[in-house]
Amino acid sequence: MYPSRFRYEAPRSLDDAIALLQAGQGEAKVLAGGQSLVPLLKLRFAAPELLVDINNLPGLDYHRVDPDGTIRIGALCRHATLERSPLLVERQPTMAAAAPLVADPLVRNRGTLVGSLCHADPQGDWAAVVTALGGRVVAAGPRGRREIPIGEFVTGPFENALRYDEIAVEAVIPASKGQPAGGYLKLERRVGDFATAAAAVALELSGDVVTRAGIALCGVGPSTIDATDAGRALTGRTLTAAAIEEAADLAAAAAQPRTDHRGSAAYKRQVVRTFVTRILRNVVSTAERAA
Amino acid sequence: MTALDEIKIGGLGASRRRVEDNRFIRGKGTYIDDIVLPGMLHMEILRSPVAHARIRSIDTSKAWEIPGVRLVLTGDMMATRNLAWMPTLSYDTQAVLATDKVRFQGQEVACVIADDPYIAKDACEAIVVDYEPLPAIVNPTQAMAPDAPLIRDDKENQADNIAFHWQVGDKEGTDRAFAEADVISKISLHYPRSHPSPIECCGSIADFDRATGKLTVYLTTQAPHIVRAAVAMVAELPEHMIRIVSPDIGGGFGNKVPVYPGYVMSILASILLERPVKWIEDRTGNLISTGFGRDVYLDGELALRRDGRILAVRMHTTSDHGAFFGDAQPSKFKIGLMHSAFSCYDIPYAYLSATGVYTNKAPGGVAYRCSFRVTEAMFFQERMIEAAASDLGMDPAELRRINLVRDDDFPHRTAWGFLTDSGQYGRCLDVALEAIGYEEFRRQQAQAREAGRLLGIGISTMTEPLGAGNSREYDILGIKMFDSAELRVHLTGRAILRTGARTQGQGHETTWAQIVAHELGIPADDVLVEEGDTDTAPFGMGTYASRSTPVAGAAVAMAARKVRAKARKLAAHLLEVSEEDVEWELGRFHVRGAPDRGVTIQECAMAAYANMPDGLEPGLEASAYYDPPNLTWPFACYVVTVEVDPETGVWDVLNVVAVDDCGVRINPMVVEGQIMGGLTEAYAMASMQFITFDAEGNCIGSNFMDYLLPTAWETPGFELHEVVTPCPHHPIGAKGVGECATVGGPAAFVNAVLDALKPFGVRNIDMPLLPDRVHEAISRRRDVSGAPPVRTD
Ligand SMILES: Cc1cc2nc3c(=O)[nH]c(=O)nc-3n(C[C@H](O)[C@H](O)[C@H](O)COP(=O)(O)OP(=O)(O)OC[C@H]3O[C@@H](n4cnc5c(N)ncnc54)[C@H](O)[C@@H]3O)c2cc1C
Fold first, then answer.
1. Chain A nearest CA to B694, separation (Å)
2. B636 and B622 together in one domain
C-alpha cells in the first residue's frame, strides 16, 4: 500500500486534536478505526495533507445508558464492543441485531460506530440503524459542542455536516418511551460485504400498540433512506397482518435502488419488503412467546 | 528385530503434520516481499485506465524530474531491445509495454524504477498518456460481429477477432448417432470469468551482477525452469548464467504459471541499472491484469435413448481469451483438455468444436486449479447430464449410474481418445448417495414442497485427466512434460531431495519425504525437501494441473528405488554375501533365510562414504526423470443439498458429501485439506464469484470488495469419504487430488439449487447463482442465462 505522502499526528487531548484540525484548514482528516479511510488512502482516492489520529484521546471508548434511558456511544467505541454488549441486548434490539452484521470480525475490532456515521456510506449499516432510532451526533469544535440530528448529519453520499475543525465525539440514541422492539436484516453476498439491501426497524410499544416506529434502509439509494411513511403507517396501530403489509410496501416504495451487479432494482425492493415484513412478524411472535 | 512401522516413520498413509507449516504459522516464511537485497530499487507499473485506445503519446518528462527516480521505461524503449512484445505459452504474442495501442484495462503502459515504491508510484502518476479511445469489445458476440473493430491489428494475417477454430472427435459418427436418438437434450451455458486470486500477488526481484555476468531472479512462479527457458530464449541471455529462485509461494492456483510483463521489465531494469530491482504487484494489478480462469460459453447436446443410454455428445465452446491468447496449456490443445468431458461415461460418439476469440479483456486463460479447461469440461458435462435427466423425466442419480463406465470395462478408451485405466465409479456413487441419505432426502423434499419450502439435491460425478503428461502428447512450446527428482543420502542416513516441481501450498516438503520413507525406510523427518532454485533443482515443468504427485512424485519414488539398488550392493558388501542373497524389508536389508543378519539403510549410507567395496563408486545418490505412460484419472462424486428461500433467492447449503478416489493417499490429512480447499472454491464459483466488465470494458471485480472470496463464515461444512483404486501405472499407485473438488464441485452446488427450483420449470441459471438471479428464476419462472448484468439503468 503506497498512499500519497501525509503528515501524521496522534494528539492526547481533544483540544489538541481540534487545534490540529483548525491549523489543517480543511487539508486534515480524522483517523478513527481507519477501516474506511485507510482503504481510500491506499487507493489514493483520498490524499489529505495531515492525519489526526484520535485513538489516543482519553475517555471516548464508552457506550452507556443514562438514568433516563438515553444511550450514548463514544467516538472510540468499536463495532466489536457493541457486538458483545449485554447492554444492547437488554435495551436496544435494533442495534443488537445490527452489530454482528457490520463488516467482518477483523474490521469490527477496529472500526467505530461514530466513524461509520461520519463516513456516511450509503451502504453503511449504522447510519440506517441510527436513523431508524432517531439518533443524533455530538460534534466538538473550537466553538464548543453542538448536537446534530442524524437526518441533518448525513448530508449526502460520503458527506456529513461537520465543519473541518469539528470532531464527532458521540452518538446519542434517545430514550425509548415504550418497550423497545425491532430488528435489523441485511442481505450480503458474503460476510464482510456491504449490504445489497438492508432494513432497520425500531419500534416503541405500549402493550401491543406501536407508539413510535422508525424504518430506515441502506444499500438501496444514493444515501441512507429514512422510510418515514412506512414508520408513520405503524404508529398508533397494533402489528396486524395488514399493518405489516402496508409498512413493508411503503418501505419498498421509499427505496431508490439501482440495478447493478448485486441485483436488479426490482429485486432489491422485494428484499426490503421481505425484510421489513420479517422483522415485524418476528416482533409479533416474540411478544406472543413472552405472553 | 521388529519390522519398522511405516506410519511411525511418516511413510505412505501417515497423516503427518505438514513440516512447512511450522514456519508459515510462525510468520517465518520467506515470500518474495520478505527478500531485501543491498542497494535494491523499486518498480511500479502504470496501467491503462481504458480498455481499448490508440496511444498518441506518452510524456514521461515530469516523472524523470521527481527526485529518487532512476529509470522510466515505455514500450518504445523496450522495442529498441526487441522486448516490447514477448511470446505467450500458446504461440501468440503479448505486449510487455504497450507501444501502439492498449488492448485491455490494466494493461502495462510504462514503469518507473525509484529509490522507494512511494516515489515510484508518485512518478507513475506524473506520466501523461494521451489516449485516443476505441470501442471496447467485452464478449464473444461483439468480437465476432461482422463490423467489429480489430483488436489484434499488430498481427499479420489477422483480419478478425478470432484467435482459433479447433475441433476434435468423430463428426460423422456423432451426426449419425444424433439422427437415431429418441431424445436430444440441449443446453447453453456460461462458465464465468473468475480469478485464481492467490493471497500473495505476483512479484519479482531481478539482480544482475555485471561483474559475474550472472542474473538472479527471485520470482513468484509455479514453474521456475520454464521461466528460465523463457528468459534464455526471449532475452537471449546464456541459460547457465540465469538463476530463477521461486521462494515461498503464497498460493498459485495457476495464476503463477505465465511469464508476466512485470517480470520482464524488472529484469531489463536491473540489467540497465546494475542494481537489484523489486516489483511487487498490488491486488488490483493482480486481479485486472494477470491470468484469469474460464470465461467459456457452451452449446451442448446429448443424443439419448429413451431408457437413458447416452448415444453421443456434441459440444461447441466459444471462449473469451482477452487481448492476447496466453492460455497456459499443452501447446497443441487449443481449448485445453475440454475433450476430456464425459470421460467417466461410456459414450460411443463425441464431437467438439471450439472457437476462441480476442476481446478487450486481460489475457490468461490459466488452468485455475485444474488441468487446462477441465473445470469447464466437467461442469458442462454435469450440467448437461442434469438437464438430460430432467428432459427424460429420469432420476439424475439413475441416469448417471446407467452410463458410468463399469469396473470391468477398464482400460476404457473414451470417444475422444483418452484412455482411462481404473476406478470404481458405481461404488463411489453408492457411497455418496448412502452418506447423504438420498432416498430419505427425496421424501423430505416432497413434503417440504407441499409446505412451500424449496429443498434441492445436486450430484456431480466425474473423472478428470491429471498429471500431464506423457511426452508423446504433452509439451509446452516443444518442451516435453516430464518431471524429475534428485535424492542424495548423506553419510548419517539423512537425505536431501530436490524436484523439478514447485510447492505452493500442496505440501511437497511433507509428502515427498513420505514417499522416500516408504521406498527406503528413512524416517520422513530425516529428509529435507527443497524445490524452486534452478541452480540446484533438476529440470522439471513445475506444479499445476495436479501433476506433482503423478509426475514429480513418481520421479521421487524412482530416484529412491535407484538409491535402494545401490544400497543393496553396499549391504551385500557389509553382510559379506552376494547381492542375490540380500533381501529388502522396509529400512533394512537382511540375508536371505537369516533375518537376524541385516544392515539398516543408515548403515548402508555410512558405508557409501566410509566403507565402500572396491570398484563401487562412492556416495549414495540418484536422480530420475519420469515420463508417465499415461495421464492419471481420479474419480469423484460430490453431492450437495440446499434450501432456497423463495422470497429472497438466498440459498443455504445443508450438506456436502464428497467421495474421492484419488488412488493411494500419501498423506490422508493433506489430501483432505486439498479436497476441502477445492470444495470451498467450488462453492465460491457457484455462489458468488465472477469478473465482469461494463460496456466500456471497465473491470468490475478489481478488488476483494467486488471479487468475493468466501470466508470461514459462509463456507459450508464438508463430509469426506474415500474409495481407493490404485493407479495401475504410477509407482506408488497415486493419482493426484489437488484439483478434483474445484473441478467437480461447482456442478453439484448448481444442480442442487436447480433441483430445488424444479417446480418452477427452471432448467438453468448461469453461475454465479447470486440470490437475485435465483429470485428472478423463481418469480418469472424462467431460466437466467448469461453473464450477470453490470449496469442497466
Ligand atoms: C472489508 C471491510 C468491510 C466493511 N463492511 C462494512 C459493512 O458491511 N457495513 C458497514 O457499515 N461498514 C463496513 N465497513 C466500514 C467499517 O464499518 C468502518 O469501520 C466504518 O465505516 C468507519 O469507521 P472507522 O472508525 O473505521 O473510521 P475511519 O476509517 O477512521 O474514518 C472514516 C471517515 O470518517 C471520518 N471520521 C471518523 N471518525 C470521525 C470522528 N470521530 N469525527 C470526525 N470524523 C471522523 C474520517 O475522517 C474518515 O473520513 C467495512 C470496512 C472494510 C474495510
1. 10
2. no
